C-alpha cells in the first residue's frame, strides 16, 4: 500500500526516505526474481516429467511389441547364453607369470640387478589347477614382495610426475 508507505516515511528525512524506498524496491525485485525462478523451475520439472513419460511410453510400446513377437507363431525359442560365459571364452588364457621357487633365499631376490617391469606383477589370481588352494605365485619371500611393491610404487609415482592419472 503506497498510503501506508508514505505515512511510515513522513517522519524521516528526505535522504532516509530515499534509502527506505530503495530498500523496498530491492526487496520487491528480489521477490519478483524468486517468483520467476520458481516458475522456470516448475516449467523445467514439467518438461522433464513429460520427457520421462514419453520415454516410458516408448519403452512400453517396445515391450508390447516384443511380447507380441514372442507370442506369435514365428517365434523360435533359443537357449539362454550368459554374457559372463562369453567373456570367459574371449579372454586370452595365455597370461604368463614368472615361476617362483618356494624356499628361495634372499640371495635370489638380490641377485638380479635389472628392474622388473611393473606390468609383470600379477594383479589377479589365476588358478591353473582346480585342486590347489592358491596360486603358486602367492608364495614368495617377504623381501622379494617388498621389493616388487617398492618398484611398483616408484613406477606409479613416476607416471604421476609425468602427468598420467594414477587410479
UniProtKB/TrEMBL annotation:
Segments of this protein annotated with the region Disordered: 33-54
Coiled coil: none
Biased composition (Basic and acidic residues): 33-53
GO cellular component, one term: cytoplasm
Domain of life: Eukaryota
GO biological process: alternative mRNA splicing, via spliceosome
Record-linked InterPro entries: SRRP53 (IPR034604)
Protein name: RSRC1 protein
